Amino acid sequence: MSFQDAQPDVSSPSTSRLRPLFDLSGRIALITGGSRGLGLQIAEALGEYGATVVLTARKQHELDEAQAHLRAQGITAHVYAGDLGDFAAIGPTVTRILAEVGPIDILVNNAGATWGAPTAEHPLEAWLKVMNVNLNGTFLLTQTVLRESMLPRGQGRIINIASVAGLQGNDPRMAATLAYNTSKGGLVNFTRALAAEMADKGITVNSICPGYFPTKMTKGTLAYGEQAILEHTPMRRLGSDTDLKGLALLLASDASAYMTGQNIAVDGGITSV
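== SDR family oxidoreductase ==
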């Protein structure tokens, strides 16, 4: 019997009661860096289960393409151009979303930046750019959404997109990425600390730590060291377009109501060896 053959009949009364746990109808999900890559994949997953998705990213034309793509799938999608590293714009953008779309139920902190350089040669400007997007901007956006939407209503789901780079050091065969690893390590503990603070307030905070997925951000890394990555990955493959979707849906939904402060690797087994 195949795995597919062994699946339960989801139409039976004994299993259909699970469906409401994953239903996101009527909820609004804000996804940063949502115009492409992992952010767009997450938007597809949450939208498929009923969420209204709000995407932010720096480039308006990419947002417009993502919005058309999602609407073609029957997903309600809104887009707002903005740079997470532009701290002064974060508050006004959230204010617009709340006024034009509604209260934010789910926040996916996905936008990120990276830089590759030996530590002794790493430009300070590049270090600050990575920290400002991956940590400082994420903090300010999260703080604003908590204050303006989640805390007053006593409910919310925060999902941080960290990385296996925040759970371990860097393979010496790969380009040095100290700023990226440091920022993602900070996001891992940001998740734990915020989860503990919000645990009695109806708000859960978890992170997904992806391994290597083919995206625009990882294009240079894969061009440089894909073979080494595959050799170090027990599953011997990169992440696919669907590998994050199930976990993102779980963490955004009522099915994860008793989960908080968790940093979950989706990496083909990289962190298991």
